[in-house]
Amino acid sequence: MTERTHPGTVPDRPARRRAGRGRRWALAGLALGTLALPPLLPERHLATFVLLLLAATVTVGVSLLMGYAGQVSLGQASFYAIGAYTAGLLAVHGVPPLVGLALAPLIAAAAAVLLGAPLLRLRGHHLAFATLAVQLILLSLLAQADWAGGAIGLQGIPRLSLFGVELREDLGYAYAAWFVLAVAVLIARNVIESRAGRGLRAAAASETAAAASGVAVGRYRLAVFALSAAFAGLAGGVYAFYLGYLAPGSFPVLLSIEYVVMAVVGGLGTIAGPLVGATVIILLVQVLNTLGTQPGMPDYAPSVLSYAVYALVLVICVLFLPRGLVPALRSRVGRVVRP
Amino acid sequence: MSDLIGYLLTGLGIGAGFALVGSGLVAIYRVTRVVNFAQGAFAVLAAMLTSSLLGAGLPHGVAEVGGVVLGALAGLIVGVIAIGRPGTSPGTSLIVTLGLGVLAYAVEVLIWGDQPRSFPGVSGVAEVGGARLPAHYLLILAVTAPVFLVMAWFFARTDLGRALSACASNRYAAQVVGIDVRRMGLLAFAIGGALGGLAGVLTTPVQQVTFDSDVTLIVNGFAAAVLGGLTRPMVALAGGLLLGVAQTLAAGYGGGAYQMEVALVLMLTVMIIQAARTGPVPETA
Fold first, then answer.
1. Closest by Cβ to A129, choosing from B96, B109, B222
2. How far is CA B82 from CA A65, A125, A306, B157, B262, in A?
3. What is the pTM of this model?
4. Which ranges does the record mark as transmembrane (chain B) (predicted)?
Protein backbone atom coordinates (compact mmCIF):
# COMPACT_ATOMS: atom_id res chain seq x y z
CA MET A 1 0.00 0.00 0.00
CA THR A 2 1.56 3.27 -1.00
CA GLU A 3 0.91 6.34 1.07
CA ARG A 4 0.04 9.23 -1.17
CA THR A 5 0.15 12.78 0.01
CA HIS A 6 -3.03 14.77 -0.08
CA PRO A 7 -1.90 18.30 -0.82
CA GLY A 8 -3.25 20.74 1.69
CA THR A 9 -5.12 18.25 3.81
CA VAL A 10 -2.45 16.11 5.49
CA PRO A 11 0.60 18.15 6.35
CA ASP A 12 1.79 15.86 9.13
CA ARG A 13 2.92 12.88 7.10
CA PRO A 14 5.12 11.09 9.68
CA ALA A 15 2.32 11.20 12.27
CA ARG A 16 -0.10 9.81 9.76
CA ARG A 17 2.30 7.04 8.89
CA ARG A 18 2.82 6.29 12.59
CA ALA A 19 -0.92 6.10 13.12
CA GLY A 20 -1.24 3.89 10.05
CA ARG A 21 1.48 1.60 11.35
CA GLY A 22 -0.16 1.40 14.77
CA ARG A 23 -3.45 0.58 13.18
CA ARG A 24 -1.83 -2.10 11.07
CA TRP A 25 -0.34 -3.71 14.20
CA ALA A 26 -3.72 -3.56 15.92
CA LEU A 27 -5.33 -5.26 12.94
CA ALA A 28 -2.64 -7.98 12.91
CA GLY A 29 -3.07 -8.51 16.65
CA LEU A 30 -6.83 -8.76 16.25
CA ALA A 31 -6.37 -11.27 13.43
CA LEU A 32 -4.06 -13.49 15.50
CA GLY A 33 -6.28 -13.22 18.57
CA THR A 34 -9.42 -14.24 16.71
CA LEU A 35 -7.51 -17.08 14.99
CA ALA A 36 -6.57 -18.52 18.38
CA LEU A 37 -10.07 -18.06 19.82
CA PRO A 38 -12.29 -20.73 18.14
CA PRO A 39 -10.73 -23.89 19.73
CA LEU A 40 -11.16 -22.28 23.15
CA LEU A 41 -14.86 -21.55 22.70
CA PRO A 42 -17.51 -24.04 23.80
CA GLU A 43 -19.70 -25.48 21.05
CA ARG A 44 -22.73 -23.24 21.59
CA HIS A 45 -20.66 -20.07 21.54
CA LEU A 46 -18.88 -21.24 18.41
CA ALA A 47 -22.16 -20.91 16.47
CA THR A 48 -22.44 -17.29 17.61
CA PHE A 49 -18.81 -16.75 16.60
CA VAL A 50 -19.46 -18.04 13.05
CA LEU A 51 -22.60 -15.91 12.62
CA LEU A 52 -20.78 -12.90 14.06
CA LEU A 53 -17.97 -13.20 11.52
CA LEU A 54 -20.44 -13.63 8.66
CA ALA A 55 -22.48 -10.60 9.82
CA ALA A 56 -19.26 -8.58 10.09
CA THR A 57 -18.36 -9.55 6.51
CA VAL A 58 -21.67 -8.22 5.19
CA THR A 59 -21.37 -5.13 7.38
CA VAL A 60 -17.93 -4.31 5.95
CA GLY A 61 -19.68 -3.99 2.60
CA VAL A 62 -22.59 -1.97 4.01
CA SER A 63 -20.18 0.39 5.74
CA LEU A 64 -18.22 0.85 2.54
CA LEU A 65 -21.45 1.57 0.67
CA MET A 66 -22.88 3.98 3.24
CA GLY A 67 -19.67 5.62 4.38
CA TYR A 68 -17.81 5.93 1.13
CA ALA A 69 -20.45 5.93 -1.54
CA GLY A 70 -23.13 7.70 0.54
CA GLN A 71 -25.78 5.13 -0.33
CA VAL A 72 -28.23 3.55 2.10
CA SER A 73 -29.08 -0.03 1.22
CA LEU A 74 -32.00 -1.56 3.09
CA GLY A 75 -31.79 -4.69 0.97
CA GLN A 76 -28.32 -6.00 1.66
CA ALA A 77 -29.74 -9.29 2.93
CA SER A 78 -30.96 -9.96 -0.62
CA PHE A 79 -27.37 -10.32 -1.79
CA TYR A 80 -26.66 -12.52 1.22
CA ALA A 81 -29.62 -14.63 0.09
CA ILE A 82 -28.46 -14.66 -3.54
CA GLY A 83 -25.01 -15.89 -2.47
CA ALA A 84 -26.49 -18.50 -0.15
CA TYR A 85 -28.93 -19.82 -2.74
CA THR A 86 -26.22 -19.85 -5.44
CA ALA A 87 -23.90 -21.97 -3.30
CA GLY A 88 -26.74 -24.11 -1.97
CA LEU A 89 -28.40 -24.85 -5.33
CA LEU A 90 -25.08 -25.65 -7.03
CA ALA A 91 -24.04 -27.95 -4.20
CA VAL A 92 -27.40 -29.73 -4.20
CA HIS A 93 -26.93 -30.43 -7.91
CA GLY A 94 -23.53 -31.97 -7.37
CA VAL A 95 -21.21 -29.06 -8.16
CA PRO A 96 -18.12 -29.18 -5.90
CA PRO A 97 -18.78 -26.94 -2.87
CA LEU A 98 -15.67 -24.87 -3.39
CA VAL A 99 -16.81 -23.94 -6.91
CA GLY A 100 -20.22 -22.98 -5.51
CA LEU A 101 -18.58 -20.87 -2.83
CA ALA A 102 -16.44 -19.12 -5.44
CA LEU A 103 -19.46 -18.43 -7.64
CA ALA A 104 -21.62 -17.08 -4.78
CA PRO A 105 -19.94 -13.64 -4.63
CA LEU A 106 -19.70 -13.47 -8.42
CA ILE A 107 -23.41 -14.09 -8.95
CA ALA A 108 -24.28 -11.66 -6.14
CA ALA A 109 -22.06 -9.00 -7.70
CA ALA A 110 -23.55 -9.64 -11.14
CA ALA A 111 -27.04 -9.22 -9.68
CA ALA A 112 -25.90 -5.98 -8.05
CA VAL A 113 -24.60 -4.64 -11.36
CA LEU A 114 -27.85 -5.52 -13.14
CA LEU A 115 -29.99 -3.97 -10.39
CA GLY A 116 -27.63 -1.12 -9.69
CA ALA A 117 -27.50 0.17 -13.24
CA PRO A 118 -31.06 1.55 -13.03
CA LEU A 119 -31.39 1.85 -9.24
CA LEU A 120 -28.27 3.85 -8.48
CA ARG A 121 -29.76 6.83 -10.28
CA LEU A 122 -31.80 7.15 -7.11
CA ARG A 123 -30.55 8.89 -4.02
CA GLY A 124 -31.23 9.01 -0.30
CA HIS A 125 -34.60 7.69 0.78
CA HIS A 126 -35.58 6.75 -2.78
CA LEU A 127 -32.66 4.35 -2.95
CA ALA A 128 -33.44 3.05 0.54
CA PHE A 129 -36.98 2.15 -0.48
CA ALA A 130 -35.86 0.79 -3.85
CA THR A 131 -33.42 -1.64 -2.22
CA LEU A 132 -36.09 -2.62 0.28
CA ALA A 133 -38.51 -3.26 -2.60
CA VAL A 134 -35.90 -5.39 -4.37
CA GLN A 135 -35.56 -7.56 -1.30
CA LEU A 136 -39.33 -7.98 -0.93
CA ILE A 137 -39.56 -8.97 -4.61
CA LEU A 138 -36.69 -11.46 -4.21
CA LEU A 139 -38.25 -13.04 -1.11
CA SER A 140 -41.63 -13.32 -2.79
CA LEU A 141 -40.09 -14.87 -5.92
CA LEU A 142 -38.03 -17.32 -3.85
CA ALA A 143 -41.12 -18.39 -1.92
CA GLN A 144 -42.84 -19.20 -5.24
CA ALA A 145 -39.85 -20.85 -6.92
CA ASP A 146 -40.27 -24.59 -6.64
CA TRP A 147 -36.84 -25.23 -8.12
CA ALA A 148 -35.33 -23.41 -5.13
CA GLY A 149 -37.42 -25.21 -2.53
CA GLY A 150 -40.21 -22.62 -2.46
CA ALA A 151 -41.47 -21.37 0.86
CA ILE A 152 -40.47 -24.61 2.58
CA GLY A 153 -36.86 -24.07 1.73
CA LEU A 154 -33.85 -25.73 0.16
CA GLN A 155 -32.82 -28.80 2.11
CA GLY A 156 -29.97 -31.27 2.05
CA ILE A 157 -27.12 -28.92 1.17
CA PRO A 158 -23.91 -30.95 1.61
CA ARG A 159 -21.22 -29.71 3.93
CA LEU A 160 -18.31 -27.65 2.68
CA SER A 161 -15.29 -29.71 1.71
CA LEU A 162 -11.88 -28.24 1.12
CA PHE A 163 -9.40 -30.35 -0.86
CA GLY A 164 -11.14 -33.59 0.01
CA VAL A 165 -11.54 -32.76 3.72
CA GLU A 166 -15.19 -32.34 4.70
CA LEU A 167 -15.88 -29.67 7.31
CA ARG A 168 -18.18 -31.40 9.77
CA GLU A 169 -17.49 -29.48 12.95
CA ASP A 170 -18.36 -25.88 13.71
CA LEU A 171 -14.65 -25.25 14.23
CA GLY A 172 -13.97 -25.64 10.52
CA TYR A 173 -16.69 -23.12 9.68
CA ALA A 174 -15.29 -20.71 12.23
CA TYR A 175 -12.05 -20.68 10.25
CA ALA A 176 -13.88 -20.52 6.92
CA ALA A 177 -15.85 -17.50 8.16
CA TRP A 178 -12.66 -15.96 9.52
CA PHE A 179 -11.00 -16.32 6.14
CA VAL A 180 -14.00 -14.77 4.38
CA LEU A 181 -14.00 -11.79 6.75
CA ALA A 182 -10.25 -11.34 6.35
CA VAL A 183 -10.62 -11.23 2.57
CA ALA A 184 -13.41 -8.64 2.85
CA VAL A 185 -11.43 -6.45 5.26
CA LEU A 186 -8.29 -6.55 3.13
CA ILE A 187 -10.16 -5.70 -0.07
CA ALA A 188 -12.11 -2.90 1.64
CA ARG A 189 -8.88 -1.49 3.07
CA ASN A 190 -7.18 -1.47 -0.30
CA VAL A 191 -10.19 0.11 -1.98
CA ILE A 192 -10.35 2.88 0.61
CA GLU A 193 -6.69 3.74 0.20
CA SER A 194 -6.78 3.58 -3.57
CA ARG A 195 -7.36 6.40 -6.02
CA ALA A 196 -10.90 5.15 -6.55
CA GLY A 197 -11.50 5.31 -2.79
CA ARG A 198 -10.53 8.98 -2.67
CA GLY A 199 -12.78 9.66 -5.61
CA LEU A 200 -15.66 7.99 -3.81
CA ARG A 201 -15.11 9.95 -0.63
CA ALA A 202 -15.15 13.13 -2.67
CA ALA A 203 -18.35 12.04 -4.40
CA ALA A 204 -20.04 11.25 -1.09
CA ALA A 205 -19.28 14.79 0.11
CA SER A 206 -20.28 16.54 -3.08
CA GLU A 207 -21.24 14.69 -6.18
CA THR A 208 -21.11 17.73 -8.40
CA ALA A 209 -17.65 18.78 -7.25
CA ALA A 210 -16.28 15.26 -7.62
CA ALA A 211 -17.75 14.86 -11.09
CA ALA A 212 -16.34 18.24 -12.07
CA SER A 213 -12.90 17.09 -10.92
CA GLY A 214 -13.06 14.10 -13.23
CA VAL A 215 -14.25 11.38 -10.85
CA ALA A 216 -16.32 8.80 -12.71
CA VAL A 217 -18.97 8.96 -9.98
CA GLY A 218 -21.53 6.65 -11.56
CA ARG A 219 -19.06 3.91 -12.38
CA TYR A 220 -17.40 4.04 -8.95
CA ARG A 221 -20.75 3.88 -7.18
CA LEU A 222 -21.79 0.86 -9.19
CA ALA A 223 -18.44 -0.79 -8.45
CA VAL A 224 -18.83 -0.28 -4.70
CA PHE A 225 -22.41 -1.54 -4.85
CA ALA A 226 -21.19 -4.68 -6.64
CA LEU A 227 -18.28 -5.11 -4.22
CA SER A 228 -20.53 -4.86 -1.16
CA ALA A 229 -22.89 -7.36 -2.79
CA ALA A 230 -19.93 -9.69 -3.41
CA PHE A 231 -19.00 -9.56 0.29
CA ALA A 232 -22.59 -10.37 1.23
CA GLY A 233 -22.71 -13.16 -1.36
CA LEU A 234 -19.49 -14.72 -0.10
CA ALA A 235 -20.74 -14.67 3.49
CA GLY A 236 -24.05 -16.10 2.28
CA GLY A 237 -22.20 -18.96 0.58
CA VAL A 238 -20.50 -19.97 3.82
CA TYR A 239 -23.83 -19.63 5.63
CA ALA A 240 -25.50 -22.06 3.19
CA PHE A 241 -22.91 -24.77 3.83
CA TYR A 242 -22.84 -24.08 7.55
CA LEU A 243 -26.60 -24.43 8.11
CA GLY A 244 -27.27 -26.91 5.29
CA TYR A 245 -30.78 -25.48 4.92
CA LEU A 246 -32.08 -22.26 3.34
CA ALA A 247 -35.54 -20.71 3.30
CA PRO A 248 -36.83 -17.28 2.27
CA GLY A 249 -37.68 -16.74 5.94
CA SER A 250 -33.97 -16.86 6.81
CA PHE A 251 -33.47 -13.53 5.05
CA PRO A 252 -36.10 -11.13 6.42
CA VAL A 253 -36.07 -7.38 5.84
CA LEU A 254 -35.09 -7.07 9.48
CA LEU A 255 -31.77 -8.77 8.65
CA SER A 256 -30.97 -5.96 6.19
CA ILE A 257 -31.85 -3.43 8.87
CA GLU A 258 -29.55 -5.25 11.31
CA TYR A 259 -26.60 -4.77 8.95
CA VAL A 260 -27.37 -1.06 8.75
CA VAL A 261 -27.56 -0.90 12.55
CA MET A 262 -24.19 -2.63 12.89
CA ALA A 263 -22.56 -0.36 10.31
CA VAL A 264 -23.98 2.83 11.83
CA VAL A 265 -23.21 1.84 15.42
CA GLY A 266 -19.61 0.89 14.63
CA GLY A 267 -18.97 4.00 12.61
CA LEU A 268 -19.34 4.45 8.87
CA GLY A 269 -16.32 4.78 6.67
CA THR A 270 -13.85 3.04 8.96
CA ILE A 271 -12.42 -0.44 8.70
CA ALA A 272 -12.72 -1.21 12.40
CA GLY A 273 -16.28 0.20 12.55
CA PRO A 274 -18.15 -2.75 11.03
CA LEU A 275 -16.09 -5.21 13.09
CA VAL A 276 -16.82 -3.36 16.33
CA GLY A 277 -20.46 -2.73 15.38
CA ALA A 278 -21.16 -6.37 14.52
CA THR A 279 -19.38 -7.59 17.66
CA VAL A 280 -21.17 -5.20 20.00
CA ILE A 281 -24.62 -5.87 18.56
CA ILE A 282 -24.28 -9.65 18.25
CA LEU A 283 -22.80 -10.06 21.73
CA LEU A 284 -25.45 -7.80 23.24
CA VAL A 285 -28.24 -9.71 21.51
CA GLN A 286 -26.65 -13.00 22.57
CA VAL A 287 -26.43 -11.94 26.22
CA LEU A 288 -30.05 -10.77 26.21
CA ASN A 289 -31.07 -13.94 24.42
CA THR A 290 -29.51 -16.00 27.20
CA LEU A 291 -31.35 -13.83 29.72
CA GLY A 292 -34.60 -14.11 27.78
CA THR A 293 -34.50 -17.90 27.62
CA GLN A 294 -33.98 -18.28 31.37
CA PRO A 295 -36.66 -20.38 33.02
CA GLY A 296 -39.52 -18.20 34.17
CA MET A 297 -39.19 -15.75 31.31
CA PRO A 298 -42.12 -15.58 28.87
CA ASP A 299 -41.48 -17.20 25.49
CA TYR A 300 -41.67 -13.91 23.63
CA ALA A 301 -38.87 -12.40 25.77
CA PRO A 302 -35.93 -13.17 23.42
CA SER A 303 -37.52 -11.55 20.37
CA VAL A 304 -38.78 -8.53 22.32
CA LEU A 305 -35.35 -8.00 23.83
CA SER A 306 -33.52 -8.29 20.52
CA TYR A 307 -35.91 -5.87 18.75
CA ALA A 308 -35.53 -3.43 21.61
CA VAL A 309 -31.74 -3.69 21.48
CA TYR A 310 -31.52 -3.04 17.75
CA ALA A 311 -33.89 -0.13 18.04
CA LEU A 312 -32.48 1.57 21.11
CA VAL A 313 -28.83 1.11 20.16
CA LEU A 314 -29.51 2.51 16.71
CA VAL A 315 -31.53 5.52 17.88
CA ILE A 316 -29.20 6.43 20.73
CA CYS A 317 -26.14 6.00 18.57
CA VAL A 318 -27.49 8.09 15.70
CA LEU A 319 -28.61 10.90 17.99
CA PHE A 320 -25.72 11.03 20.45
CA LEU A 321 -22.76 9.38 18.70
CA PRO A 322 -23.56 10.27 15.10
CA ARG A 323 -20.16 9.19 13.82
CA GLY A 324 -20.36 5.80 15.53
CA LEU A 325 -18.44 4.03 18.27
CA VAL A 326 -15.04 3.71 16.62
CA PRO A 327 -14.49 7.36 15.63
CA ALA A 328 -15.93 8.49 19.00
CA LEU A 329 -13.57 6.22 20.93
CA ARG A 330 -10.64 7.17 18.73
CA SER A 331 -11.07 10.89 19.31
CA ARG A 332 -11.48 10.34 23.05
CA VAL A 333 -8.31 8.19 23.22
CA GLY A 334 -6.50 10.74 21.07
CA ARG A 335 -7.46 13.48 23.51
CA VAL A 336 -6.06 11.48 26.44
CA VAL A 337 -2.81 10.51 24.71
CA ARG A 338 -2.05 13.94 23.27
CA PRO A 339 -2.64 16.40 26.09
CA MET B 1 -67.86 -8.00 -16.05
CA SER B 2 -69.12 -8.48 -12.52
CA ASP B 3 -65.70 -9.98 -11.71
CA LEU B 4 -64.08 -6.80 -12.92
CA ILE B 5 -66.33 -4.56 -10.84
CA GLY B 6 -65.63 -6.71 -7.82
CA TYR B 7 -61.87 -6.52 -8.34
CA LEU B 8 -62.05 -2.77 -8.90
CA LEU B 9 -63.99 -2.10 -5.69
CA THR B 10 -61.82 -4.43 -3.61
CA GLY B 11 -58.77 -2.82 -5.15
CA LEU B 12 -60.03 0.66 -4.31
CA GLY B 13 -60.65 -0.46 -0.72
CA ILE B 14 -57.16 -1.87 -0.32
CA GLY B 15 -55.72 1.10 -2.18
CA ALA B 16 -57.47 3.51 0.19
CA GLY B 17 -55.38 1.96 2.98
CA PHE B 18 -52.17 2.56 1.02
CA ALA B 19 -53.36 6.09 0.22
CA LEU B 20 -53.92 6.87 3.91
CA VAL B 21 -50.47 5.54 4.85
CA GLY B 22 -48.98 7.41 1.90
CA SER B 23 -50.70 10.69 2.71
CA GLY B 24 -49.41 10.37 6.27
CA LEU B 25 -45.90 10.11 4.82
CA VAL B 26 -46.63 13.16 2.67
CA ALA B 27 -48.00 15.19 5.60
CA ILE B 28 -44.76 14.58 7.50
CA TYR B 29 -42.37 14.89 4.58
CA ARG B 30 -43.76 18.19 3.29
CA VAL B 31 -43.18 19.96 6.56
CA THR B 32 -40.06 18.25 7.94
CA ARG B 33 -38.34 16.70 4.87
CA VAL B 34 -38.21 13.47 6.87
CA VAL B 35 -39.37 10.21 5.30
CA ASN B 36 -40.97 8.53 8.27
CA PHE B 37 -40.11 4.87 8.25
CA ALA B 38 -42.27 4.19 11.31
CA GLN B 39 -45.40 5.12 9.35
CA GLY B 40 -46.47 1.48 8.97
CA ALA B 41 -46.07 0.92 12.70
CA PHE B 42 -48.79 3.52 13.45
CA ALA B 43 -51.26 1.42 11.48
CA VAL B 44 -50.25 -1.77 13.26
CA LEU B 45 -50.40 -0.16 16.72
CA ALA B 46 -53.82 1.35 16.05
CA ALA B 47 -55.21 -1.91 14.69
CA MET B 48 -53.87 -3.90 17.66
CA LEU B 49 -55.30 -1.48 20.21
CA THR B 50 -58.68 -1.47 18.43
CA SER B 51 -58.82 -5.27 18.55
CA SER B 52 -58.06 -5.16 22.29
CA LEU B 53 -60.65 -2.46 22.97
CA LEU B 54 -63.31 -4.34 21.03
CA GLY B 55 -62.32 -7.48 22.92
CA ALA B 56 -62.81 -5.58 26.18
CA GLY B 57 -66.41 -4.84 25.19
CA LEU B 58 -66.18 -1.30 23.91
CA PRO B 59 -68.62 -0.51 21.09
CA HIS B 60 -67.56 -0.04 17.48
CA GLY B 61 -66.70 3.55 16.79
CA VAL B 62 -65.24 4.21 20.23
CA ALA B 63 -62.65 1.44 19.84
CA GLU B 64 -61.69 2.62 16.36
CA VAL B 65 -61.31 6.21 17.53
CA GLY B 66 -59.12 4.92 20.35
CA GLY B 67 -56.89 3.24 17.78
CA VAL B 68 -56.56 6.40 15.71
CA VAL B 69 -55.77 8.46 18.82
CA LEU B 70 -53.02 5.98 19.70
CA GLY B 71 -51.69 6.36 16.16
CA ALA B 72 -51.56 10.15 16.57
CA LEU B 73 -49.83 9.81 19.95
CA ALA B 74 -47.29 7.39 18.53
CA GLY B 75 -46.72 9.84 15.69
CA LEU B 76 -46.10 12.65 18.16
CA ILE B 77 -43.62 10.52 20.14
CA VAL B 78 -41.74 9.51 16.97
CA GLY B 79 -41.69 13.17 15.95
CA VAL B 80 -40.26 14.32 19.28
CA ILE B 81 -37.46 11.77 19.09
CA ALA B 82 -36.78 12.15 15.37
CA ILE B 83 -36.78 15.95 15.03
CA GLY B 84 -36.79 17.10 18.66
CA ARG B 85 -33.05 17.62 18.90
CA PRO B 86 -32.11 20.83 17.10
CA GLY B 87 -29.78 20.23 14.18
CA THR B 88 -30.91 16.69 13.35
CA SER B 89 -30.59 16.30 9.58
CA PRO B 90 -33.43 14.63 7.63
CA GLY B 91 -31.10 11.72 6.81
CA THR B 92 -30.40 11.15 10.49
CA SER B 93 -34.11 11.41 11.25
CA LEU B 94 -34.83 8.73 8.63
CA ILE B 95 -32.49 6.32 10.42
CA VAL B 96 -34.06 7.28 13.77
CA THR B 97 -37.56 6.51 12.49
CA LEU B 98 -36.25 3.21 11.14
CA GLY B 99 -35.04 2.38 14.64
CA LEU B 100 -38.35 3.45 16.18
CA GLY B 101 -40.19 1.21 13.72
CA VAL B 102 -38.19 -1.73 15.07
CA LEU B 103 -38.85 -0.57 18.63
CA ALA B 104 -42.56 -0.72 17.83
CA TYR B 105 -42.05 -4.45 17.09
CA ALA B 106 -40.80 -4.95 20.62
CA VAL B 107 -43.78 -3.09 22.09
CA GLU B 108 -46.30 -4.90 19.87
CA VAL B 109 -44.93 -8.39 20.56
CA LEU B 110 -44.71 -7.58 24.27
CA ILE B 111 -48.32 -6.46 24.53
CA TRP B 112 -50.14 -8.37 21.79
CA GLY B 113 -47.91 -11.34 20.96
CA ASP B 114 -46.67 -12.35 17.53
CA GLN B 115 -49.83 -13.96 16.16
CA PRO B 116 -51.96 -12.30 13.47
CA ARG B 117 -54.92 -10.32 14.77
CA SER B 118 -58.10 -9.06 13.29
CA PHE B 119 -61.50 -7.80 14.37
CA PRO B 120 -64.90 -7.80 12.74
CA GLY B 121 -65.83 -4.78 10.65
CA VAL B 122 -69.06 -4.26 8.77
CA SER B 123 -70.46 -7.74 8.32
CA GLY B 124 -72.36 -9.00 5.33
CA VAL B 125 -71.93 -9.00 1.60
CA ALA B 126 -72.75 -6.08 -0.64
CA GLU B 127 -73.86 -6.38 -4.23
CA VAL B 128 -72.74 -3.66 -6.62
CA GLY B 129 -73.41 -3.99 -10.34
CA GLY B 130 -73.73 -7.75 -10.07
CA ALA B 131 -70.45 -8.14 -8.16
CA ARG B 132 -70.53 -9.49 -4.62
CA LEU B 133 -67.91 -8.31 -2.18
CA PRO B 134 -67.60 -7.90 1.60
CA ALA B 135 -69.51 -4.78 2.58
CA HIS B 136 -66.58 -3.57 4.65
CA TYR B 137 -64.76 -2.45 1.48
CA LEU B 138 -67.52 0.09 0.89
CA LEU B 139 -67.08 1.42 4.42
CA ILE B 140 -63.35 1.90 3.78
CA LEU B 141 -64.18 4.00 0.72
CA ALA B 142 -66.96 5.86 2.53
CA VAL B 143 -64.55 6.92 5.27
CA THR B 144 -61.50 7.63 3.11
CA ALA B 145 -63.21 10.02 0.69
CA PRO B 146 -64.37 12.55 3.34
CA VAL B 147 -61.01 12.28 5.14
CA PHE B 148 -59.22 13.45 2.02
CA LEU B 149 -61.77 16.23 1.47
CA VAL B 150 -61.30 17.43 5.06
CA MET B 151 -57.55 17.32 4.58
CA ALA B 152 -57.75 19.42 1.43
CA TRP B 153 -59.95 21.93 3.26
CA PHE B 154 -57.65 21.92 6.30
CA PHE B 155 -54.45 22.61 4.34
CA ALA B 156 -56.04 25.28 2.15
CA ARG B 157 -58.53 27.09 4.37
CA THR B 158 -57.55 26.99 8.04
CA ASP B 159 -54.79 29.06 9.68
CA LEU B 160 -53.08 26.00 11.09
CA GLY B 161 -53.22 24.17 7.78
CA ARG B 162 -51.88 27.21 5.95
CA ALA B 163 -49.05 27.46 8.48
CA LEU B 164 -48.18 23.84 7.76
CA SER B 165 -48.25 24.47 4.03
CA ALA B 166 -46.08 27.54 4.52
CA CYS B 167 -43.45 25.43 6.30
CA ALA B 168 -43.66 22.96 3.44
CA SER B 169 -43.04 25.49 0.72
CA ASN B 170 -40.39 27.61 2.43
CA ARG B 171 -39.12 26.84 5.90
CA TYR B 172 -37.06 29.95 6.24
CA ALA B 173 -39.80 32.32 5.13
CA ALA B 174 -42.24 30.57 7.45
CA GLN B 175 -39.87 31.14 10.35
CA VAL B 176 -39.48 34.79 9.42
CA VAL B 177 -43.22 35.43 9.63
CA GLY B 178 -43.30 33.89 13.09
CA ILE B 179 -44.35 30.31 12.52
CA ASP B 180 -42.81 27.85 14.98
CA VAL B 181 -41.39 25.43 12.43
CA ARG B 182 -40.49 22.77 14.97
CA ARG B 183 -43.95 22.74 16.50
CA MET B 184 -45.46 22.50 13.02
CA GLY B 185 -43.17 19.52 12.38
CA LEU B 186 -44.48 17.79 15.51
CA LEU B 187 -48.05 18.57 14.47
CA ALA B 188 -47.30 17.04 11.07
CA PHE B 189 -46.02 13.91 12.78
CA ALA B 190 -49.21 13.66 14.85
CA ILE B 191 -51.38 14.09 11.72
CA GLY B 192 -49.29 11.47 9.95
CA GLY B 193 -49.71 9.14 12.92
CA ALA B 194 -53.48 9.60 12.90
CA LEU B 195 -53.68 8.92 9.14
CA GLY B 196 -51.53 5.81 9.55
CA GLY B 197 -53.68 4.68 12.46
CA LEU B 198 -56.84 5.22 10.42
CA ALA B 199 -55.40 3.05 7.64
CA GLY B 200 -54.72 0.25 10.10
CA VAL B 201 -58.14 0.48 11.76
CA LEU B 202 -59.99 0.53 8.43
CA THR B 203 -58.18 -2.30 6.64
CA THR B 204 -57.66 -4.80 9.47
CA PRO B 205 -61.16 -6.35 9.23
CA VAL B 206 -60.38 -7.44 5.65
CA GLN B 207 -56.65 -8.04 6.04
CA GLN B 208 -55.20 -9.53 9.21
CA VAL B 209 -52.44 -7.58 10.86
CA THR B 210 -49.24 -8.93 12.44
CA PHE B 211 -46.52 -6.96 14.13
CA ASP B 212 -44.41 -7.02 10.95
CA SER B 213 -47.18 -6.02 8.51
CA ASP B 214 -45.73 -2.53 8.70
CA VAL B 215 -43.13 -3.33 6.02
CA THR B 216 -45.76 -4.02 3.35
CA LEU B 217 -47.79 -1.00 4.46
CA ILE B 218 -44.87 1.42 4.44
CA VAL B 219 -43.55 0.20 1.09
CA ASN B 220 -46.97 0.46 -0.55
CA GLY B 221 -47.62 3.79 1.16
CA PHE B 222 -44.28 5.11 -0.07
CA ALA B 223 -45.08 3.81 -3.55
CA ALA B 224 -48.37 5.73 -3.45
CA ALA B 225 -46.74 8.90 -2.17
CA VAL B 226 -43.72 8.86 -4.46
CA LEU B 227 -45.94 9.39 -7.49
CA GLY B 228 -46.53 12.94 -6.31
CA GLY B 229 -42.91 13.47 -5.31
CA LEU B 230 -43.87 12.90 -1.65
CA THR B 231 -45.40 16.36 -1.41
CA ARG B 232 -48.94 16.13 -2.84
CA PRO B 233 -51.57 14.34 -0.72
CA MET B 234 -54.09 14.13 -3.54
CA VAL B 235 -51.59 12.46 -5.84
CA ALA B 236 -50.86 10.04 -3.01
CA LEU B 237 -54.58 9.24 -2.93
CA ALA B 238 -54.64 8.59 -6.68
CA GLY B 239 -51.42 6.59 -6.42
CA GLY B 240 -52.71 4.46 -3.58
CA LEU B 241 -55.98 3.66 -5.38
CA LEU B 242 -54.08 2.84 -8.57
CA LEU B 243 -51.75 0.50 -6.68
CA GLY B 244 -54.61 -1.24 -4.91
CA VAL B 245 -56.51 -1.80 -8.15
CA ALA B 246 -53.35 -2.97 -9.95
CA GLN B 247 -52.69 -5.47 -7.16
CA THR B 248 -56.19 -6.94 -7.03
CA LEU B 249 -56.35 -7.16 -10.83
CA ALA B 250 -53.00 -8.94 -10.86
CA ALA B 251 -54.16 -11.24 -8.07
CA GLY B 252 -57.57 -11.82 -9.64
CA TYR B 253 -56.47 -12.56 -13.19
CA GLY B 254 -52.96 -13.79 -12.36
CA GLY B 255 -54.06 -16.47 -9.93
CA GLY B 256 -53.00 -14.91 -6.65
CA ALA B 257 -49.26 -14.89 -7.21
CA TYR B 258 -47.09 -11.90 -8.02
CA GLN B 259 -49.50 -9.23 -6.73
CA MET B 260 -46.89 -7.62 -4.53
CA GLU B 261 -44.34 -7.65 -7.35
CA VAL B 262 -46.73 -5.61 -9.51
CA ALA B 263 -46.87 -2.81 -6.96
CA LEU B 264 -43.15 -2.84 -6.25
CA VAL B 265 -42.06 -2.90 -9.88
CA LEU B 266 -44.51 -0.06 -10.55
CA MET B 267 -42.91 1.95 -7.75
CA LEU B 268 -39.37 1.26 -8.96
CA THR B 269 -40.31 2.25 -12.50
CA VAL B 270 -41.90 5.50 -11.35
CA MET B 271 -38.88 6.43 -9.24
CA ILE B 272 -36.40 5.62 -12.01
CA ILE B 273 -38.39 7.64 -14.55
CA GLN B 274 -38.64 10.55 -12.10
CA ALA B 275 -34.88 10.42 -11.48
CA ALA B 276 -34.15 10.24 -15.19
CA ARG B 277 -36.38 13.23 -15.87
CA THR B 278 -35.02 15.52 -13.19
CA GLY B 279 -31.43 14.27 -13.33
CA PRO B 280 -29.40 13.49 -10.25
CA VAL B 281 -31.18 15.56 -7.63
CA PRO B 282 -29.23 17.05 -4.75
CA GLU B 283 -29.39 14.70 -1.79
CA THR B 284 -32.17 15.79 0.52
CA ALA B 285 -32.19 12.85 2.90
1. B222
2. 24, 15, 21, 29, 32
3. 0.86
4. 6-29, 41-59, 65-83, 95-113, 133-156, 184-202, 222-245, 257-276
